[in-house]
Design a protein that fits this description.
single chain; 10 helices; globular; disordered C terminus
Length: 221
């Protein structure tokens, strides 16, 4: 009987947490459906299908709004479960803290601006002969730019000195690939982090920065 009671309490707590971040878990639900759909496609058709929803130069020049929205609804590689953890650790706390509208503004800003700026940089590189012309069709989909932006804005949610440890780890995680690999995707991720930092005005509110030693913030009503 005790096990049943504890299980019910656990389920109620989990349900309350999901309700406290509706945008995060609705997005995860969409990603689950699209990931299942990808698993039912042949590899050849999958690449063609995703390229039409990619924020590459060709698609952005033809259907910018459509691909900017569609590219955030698919996961390249088809592994959904790791994103459940990432969304729960980063997106859900950010949405609970900022509210759904401001959280979504951070996500959209990082995703859209980083996509456009990184592809513009790639276009310049193609024009200058530093990248092949075929790069206009490079596959570029996923939710990582929005995730990087949210990870950055969460810096303002953590109280010093923990904030500086988190900031150091975050910058190292996104700067090292930029220096070593120097791909335009790495550039986009780094831009997303900077955009997340620039979203500081959206974080201003009555709540104080959180100390990791404190108990979790209660669910909003």
């Amino acid at each position: 009987m005790d096990l049943v009671i504890r299980t019910r309490r656990g389920l109620r707590t989990a349900a309350a947490y999901v309700r406290s971040a509706p945008g995060t878990y609705l997005w995860l639900a969409v990603l689950f459906v699209t990931t299942v759909a990808l698993h039912h496609m042949s590899p050849q058709f999958e690449q063609h299908f995703l390229r039409q929803r990619s924020t590459n130069i060709h698609e952005l020049s033809q259907n910018p709004v459509r691909v900017l929205v569609a590219s955030a609804m698919w996961i390249q590689g088809g592994h959904w479960l790791p994103y459940v953890l990432l969304y729960t650790v980063f997106h859900a706390p950010a949405e609970r803290w900022l509210g759904t509208a401001r959280w979504l503004a951070v996500c959209a800003s990082a995703h859209v601006l980083a996509s456009l700026i990184s592809e513009l940089a790639l276009l310049v590189a193609i024009h200058d002969g530093m990248a092949p012309h075929s790069a206009v069709n490079t596959l570029d989909i996923g939710v990582s730019y929005a995730l990087a932006g949210v990870m950055a804005v969460l810096t303002y949610r953590i109280r010093a000195p923990w904030r500086y440890l988190y900031l150091t780890a975050l910058l190292a995680y996104y700067t090292v690939p930029l220096v070593t690999d120097r791909t335009f995707t790495d550039f986009g991720h780094f831009l997303s982090v900077l955009i997340g930092f620039a979203c500081y005005p959206l974080t201003r509110g009555p709540e104080k920065a959180r100390n990791p030693k404190e108990t979790p913030v209660t669910t909003r009503g």
